[in-house]
Amino acid sequence: MRRSTFTDAAVTYAAIGGTLASDLLRYPPRGYRPLERTVRLGSGEVRFRTAAALLMTWGVQLGSGMTVTDLQQSTGVQYSGIVFNADGTPSANQEHPVDEATFADDGTPYIVNGMSARLSVAVGPFTVDSPVRVVYVIDETDRIGFGYGTLAGHPASGEEAFIVDRQADDSVWLTIRAFSRPSTWYYRLAWPIVRMQQAKYTARYLRALHPVGAV
User: Which three-class secondary structure string do you get for the chain?
Assistant: First the structure.
């Protein structure tokens, strides 16, 4: 995983944190298409911790066949994670609880708010680059995850979230939530192909953290 200088830039959509909305599938941001997929990863504390550690070191993306490059901490204002009150309003004085000095055993830094990365996939003879910025991180006792938003140059405009949680019956699940639309007129013309690629990689995402590599 290569690291290099990455200049701060704004995401290319307005509904930052929208993948956290409980009614995303019914009421996505106007003009965007929502998505939610879930798969069971197993059960127990060890499975949860293993899956969470992989998730927070780009395990979903790397496990799906993507390359992750231009990995860079934010050098400017970072986006804050969003926590909601019972009435649905954002709570006040929110702080990001993840230790930004956390690293995996191989030296890979854990995903944190404001981190940027370039995700690349091979499409035939071409390589498609998709720059993203992490817009929130979830760090709870039984729920770990993050969401990233698109930057200029990404084929899509929107947000994607990856969350691993351990439920009351001790089962462990991966949930993927997203909303997207074409980022430019030429990607709009090619959108059926982009949608096929999105569907393919979503299926790969769901397998990436599974202990046997398949669902």
Answer: CCCCCCCCCCCCCCCCCHHHCCCCCCCCCCCCEEEEEEEEEEECHHHHHHHHHHHCCCHHHHHCCCEEEEEECCCCCCCCCCCECCCCCECCCCCCCCCCCCECCCCCECCCCCCEEEEEEEECCEEEEEEEEEEEEEEECCEEEEEEEECCCCCEEEEEEEEEEECCCCEEEEEEEEEEEECCHHHHHCHHHHHHHHHHHHHHHHHHCCCCCCC
CB 83 within 8 A of CB 90: yes
Enter the tokens of residue 179: 């909303």
Please write the tens of the pLDDT for every residue from 84-132: 566 655 555 544 444 444 666 666 778 999 999 999 988 778 788 889 9
pTM above threshold 0.90: no
Contact between residue 118 and residue 131 where contact means Cβ atoms under 8 Å apart: yes
121: phi then psi, degrees, rounded to nearest 5: -135, 150
Contacts of residue 206, defined as CB under 8 A and 6 or more positions apart, other chains included, come to 37, 39, 174, 176, 215
Q: What is the pLDDT of residues 161-183, one digit of tens each?
A: 999 999 999 999 999 999 999 87
Tell me the sheet residues that pair with 145.
138, 163
